[in-house]
Design goal:
CATH class of the largest domain: Alpha Beta
CATH superfamily of the largest domain: Trimethylamine methyltransferase-like
Mean pLDDT: 95
Number of helices: 18
Structural class: alpha/beta
Largest sheet: 7 strands, parallel
CATH topology of the largest domain: TIM Barrel
Number of domains: 2
């Protein structure tokens, strides 16, 4: 049963897909999967940790008692904070219905806004994307929006992080090839923060890692979960499931399977160190049986992501959501529709760290023009989610009485006081009269989005890091390259 309700605790209009009873049954189902079917960890240390905790181990297949899941849910923090890398200010508070938006990571292709060419992603395109993200007011965090392909591939993750952190002060969600890459990136973050303890107190980076559906943790993913626990750093651990392919075709079965994968990652992470900051979530969608793609525009995708946010709220653990992505190959009407629906539903659902904004072509390509358009849509959604405040000032009964029948409110002090804050004013969307639109060049939304993206690339300058810090980061990247060349 779906419903829309006004939530006056946060003064927001929110969306709820699952009832509390449905959440309870899904959790019970996921726990049964872990107890009855179990999961595989392809990492010896992880298996030993789980065995010592009291799991039933057969080789690398681990069956997890429900009591360990319940313990992990009790020890995981209800709030995770991320900071500005330049100032250390805590700018993102992942809890409750707080919604923050950012991009996705490792797309292989990139639409260059300067000539509309579809090109392989590179260190330059990651830097370009990060610069645009840093400039856009409704984008709160950065993922790479491309995989660096023009450097040695065994160390591309270090290059990727370097390209991001040099071009933004916003929090960063990273990917890492393996534990060595993750360790180097942690070291780079410690250099920026001023030490291990300073980074732990005010982290500006969180790792994103994934299990492999169904019910399998690769050696690299499990090791990164363990290292995050040892370092006491936040980790996003979320499955990317395809209903009908890697998980059951029914949405309830798909969610139970995906939730079991997240919870098995949570148990391992909390066994390493209780209280370690952990973010659940995922990309829950279908395999389109007509095309075999992992669909980013299906209604089932939006529905399951909203339901997953209900589960996150039920468990009281921060949620990694997904929105602002499309199956369309270019920035067109399909893109606008699929972006708008997913952004609005995610903003209402209670997901906290909402990624993949700027994806087109079902996650294969990044578009800065689309990213600029999405920034506008996020502003729209945030205004909607503020709801309507009802108190003496907003009711304005004295003002209504003073103006009286036949009067106007345009010149009242009340209007002057509230018109800027009560109304959302778009940047890209046009509300001017036809003649003024004609005089301004008859530009479409896509043309305006392109112009804004290009203008940012040409004119915007992100806040730099100190030169000595940049040098230390470069030394770590070069050290990693030297190791693989030996």
């Amino acid at each position: 049963m779906s419903s829309i309700r006004s939530n006056y605790r946060g003064n927001t209009a929110t969306l709820q897909v699952l009832s509390e009873e449905q959440c309870r049954r899904l959790l019970a189902g996921a726990i049964e999967v872990l107890e009855r079917t179990g999961v595989v960890y392809h990492d010896k240390e992880s298996v030993e940790i789980m065995k010592k905790a009291g799991c039933y181990v057969d080789g690398n297949r681990v069956r997890i008692p429900g009591r360990l899941v319940e313990l992990a849910l009790r020890t995981a923090p209800r709030k995770v904070t991320l900071s500005n890398s330049r100032t250390g200010e805590r700018v993102m508070h992942l809890e409750g219905n707080n919604a923050y938006f950012g991009t996705g990571s490792d797309t292989p292709f990139f639409i260059d806004p300067r000539n509309n060419a579809r090109i392989p992603t590179s260190k330059e395109t990651v830097a370009m994307a990060t610069k645009v993200i840093d400039a856009l007011p409704n984008l709160d965090f950065v993922m790479s929006l491309g995989i660096v392909q023009d450097v040695p591939q065994l160390v591309y993750d270090r290059h990727q992080f370097e390209a991001m952190v040099l071009n933004t002060s916003k929090p960063i969600v990273i990917t890492a090839i393996d534990n060595a890459g993750y360790g180097d990136i942690i070291e780079m973050c410690e250099v920026i923060a001023g030490g291990e303890e300073e980074l732990r107190k005010n982290p500006f980076m969180t790792l994103y890692a994934e299990p492999i559906s169904p019910l399998l943790h690769s050696e690299e993913a499990a090791q990164k979960l363990v290292l995050a626990g040892k370092k006491h750093l936040p980790v996003v651990y979320t499955p990317c499931i395809m209903a009908g392919s890697t998980v059951p075709a029914t949405m309830a079965g798909a969610m139970a399977n995906g939730l079991a994968e997240s919870l098995s990652g949570l148990v391992l992470n909390q066994q390493v160190q209780e209280g370690n900051p952990f973010i659940m979530g995922g990309v829950f969608t279908i395999m389109d049986m007509n095309t075999t793609i992992f669909s980013y525009g299906a209604p089932e995708f939006d529905l399951m992501m909203a339901a997953l946010a209900d589960m996150s709220n039920y468990l009281d653990i921060p949620m990694f959501g997904t929105a602002g992505c499309t199956d369309s190959k270019v920035l067109d009407e399909q893109t606008a529709i699929e972006y708008a629906i997913s952004i609005m539903m995610s903003a209402q659902s209670g997901a906290n760290l909402i990624h993949d904004v700027g994806y087109i072509e079902h996650g294969n390509t990044a578009s800065l023009d689309a990213l600029v358009m999405a920034d506008e849509l996020i502003g729209y959604a945030r205004k909607f989610c503020c709801g309507i405040k009802v108190d003496d000032e907003s009711l304005a009964l004295d003002v209504i009485d003073k103006v009286g029948p036949g009067g106007d409110f345009l010149t009242t002090q009340h209007t002057y006081k509230h018109f800027k804050t009560e109304t959302w004013y778009p940047d890209l969307f046009r509300r001017d009269i036809y003649e003024n639109w004609m005089d301004a060049g008859r530009k479409t939304l896509t043309q305006r989005a392109n112009e804004k993206a290009v203008a940012i690339l040409e004119d915007y300058q992100p806040e730099p890091l100190p030169k000595n810090v940049e040098k230390k980061l470069r030394d770590i990247v070069e050290r990693a390259e030297q190791k693989i060349s030996k």
